[in-house]
Amino acid sequence: MEKRETAKLIIDHSSYTTRISSRFAARKPYTPPVPGRIQSFIPGTVVEILVKEGDTVKHGDDIVILEAMKMKNRLKSHVDGRVASVNVKPGDRVTKGEVLVEIV
Amino acid sequence: MALEKKIRELKEKREKMLLGGGEEAIVKQKAMGKNTARERIMAILDPGTFNEYDMFVEHDARDFGMDKKNLPSDGVVIGTGTVHGNPVAIFAQDFTVAGGSLGLMHSRKITKIMDHALQMRIPLIGINDSGGARIQEGVNSLAGYGEIFFRNTISSGVIPQISVILGPCAGGAVYSPALTDFVFVVDNISKMFITGPEVIKTVLGEEISMEALGGARVHCETTGNAHFFASSEEECFSQIKRLISFIPRNNEIKAAASEPQPPEAGYDIEKIVPGDPTLPYDVREVIRAIADSSDFFEIQEMYARNMVIGFGRMGGRTVGFVANQPLEMAGVLDVDSSDKAARFIRYCDAFNIPLITLVDLPGYLPGVDQEHAGVIRHGAKVLYAYSEATVPKLTVILRKAYGGGYIAMSSRHLRADFVFAWPTAEIAVMGPEGAANIIFRKEITSAANPDDMRRQKVDEYREKFANPYVAASRGYVDAVIEPSETRRLLLHGLEVSDNKVIQMPWKKHGIPPF
Question: Taking CA B104 as the corner, what is the angle to CA B102 and CA B110, rounded to the nearest 5 degrees?
Fold first, then answer.
């Protein structure tokens, strides 16, 4: 059998000596979503940014057009607020989950 | 004289076809560590039993210069033969002919042998080595895939279907293996993905090699798409033959019995499982201690290792073992291990293979990622699979059986035929630490020394409930047994349940949570 170290895994207050799977070891701690963050839900290219810093925006306003899989997606604001920062420019390629615009 | 000439002609024609894509292409194939399609078939089948059909089939594509292209046997070899004397139907895509690409006639050959397999109720072995759809044949190529997937589905649970990935298997083509029972892969040779590295790079800007995206190891460790990992084609072929020795030819018969054998000497079943329920051990040692010849053929060895599944024999008859593995992730149920166990349970049930379940688990894995990955839906598969299974179900509770995990692991409540428990079994709603903390919360927090009180209450709970006798007093456990009695009682249980009859309510099919 291959050599792999054991560690402690706690379930219902009991501490078990066992091997930890790489998937479990690599899991990311949960972070609650921030409603004011406009994030790329899919990797793609920023086509257009429809707001600038300081703009006042309303819930449902279009903020960014993100092209992915040949579709131009309109990313909308989930909050009423003010644009605090614009982190990308048209033509930028973004990975999944990048914060493109922040609204506070 | 005329006949002699005609026979010579036939021989010449055959010789030409047997060269596939020609010597140059064969040299290339070999350089990749790969055998040719016909070599692969011969290596799997018993010597001299392969009979090839449709050798002279030709495509009739006309567009894009295809009318001038001659593709020997249209890039796929089909036939029948035997493995250990058991008849099987087999096809192998020939990468040396147009990259094994799938056109209409290529697919017609495959569906012809699939129809034979189903009608004759014999296993189907498919060897995949293909660049994908033959683009020049357009929608006809897609039609071909669809016809194959349909037959895979209709044959599912009727005849064993085995997929062997010995080259690329990309795009829609991957769904034929995905619909079959067992997928064999070979390191550095097998590649399976829906969209390849090039598309991923252009569309998403992510760079990844073919091997890292969909190589043999990935599908054995990460995706769970493959069931058997081999380092070479030869190793893969012997794994296939071994699998066939365990399973029946179709769903109407039982697997052939072999001569009953005792486990090997040297397995002391009483020394394998530590008394402390938090300490690990390798549950496969328990399986080897009770199985004929201590022989255990593990399936999906590298995937969701906290659940162990595979075939063995008890008294000469094939059985399916399902066991929690305390050595890995404390043997918890989680998304992947539930999926792995449930599919195997359904396989055994479909093919009349009794199930032996060895239980030692602390419950389900806690965590946001598990909850959000759908552990409710996936965990339900285990309940569903055990509940609907009508094959003999024998359960041995070795140590912990807590909470929902106890119910799921082939408990009496899901209609297990025999539930045995070792004296070390702890059948309870949860572990003593967790339970005492809830039940005696007030006493613990209001005590002068909460830690002492907690320890006292945990011990109290353990003494009273962390044993097999509470469950035995309700008849949930049929017998509390010494570990050394396990094999004898399982053999007896298998013997008396050999003609088990269960009436299920009529239904077209259930709606399992997949």
Answer: 70
Q: Flag whether B208 is in a domain.
A: yes
- Residue B295, chain A, CB below 8 Å: the answer is no
CB-CB neighbors (< 8 A) of A43 in chain B: 203-206
Rounded to the nearest angstrom, the minimum Cα separation between B464 and chain A is: 18
ipTM of the complex: 0.85
Model pTM? Answer: 0.94
Choosing among B332, B444, B451, which should be mutated to test the A contact, i.e. which has the most A CBs within 10 A? B332
Count of CA atoms in the C-beta half-sphere (13 A) of B184: 26
Query: Alpha helix (H) ranges present in B180-322?
Result: 197-204, 210-214, 216-218, 233-246, 283-290
Q: Where are the alpha helices (DSSP H) in B374-485?
A: 375-388, 403-408, 432-439, 441-446, 450-465, 469-473
Q: What would the pLDDT profile of B447-498 be if each residue is shown by its tens digit?
A: 999 999 999 999 999 999 999 999 999 999 999 999 999 999 999 999 999 9
CB pairs below 8 Å between A and B: how many? 77
- Could you tell me if B328 lies within 8 Å of chain A, comparing CB atoms? yes
The CATH number fitting domain A37-103, selected from 2.40.50.100, 3.40.640.10, 3.40.50.1820, 1.50.10.100: 2.40.50.100
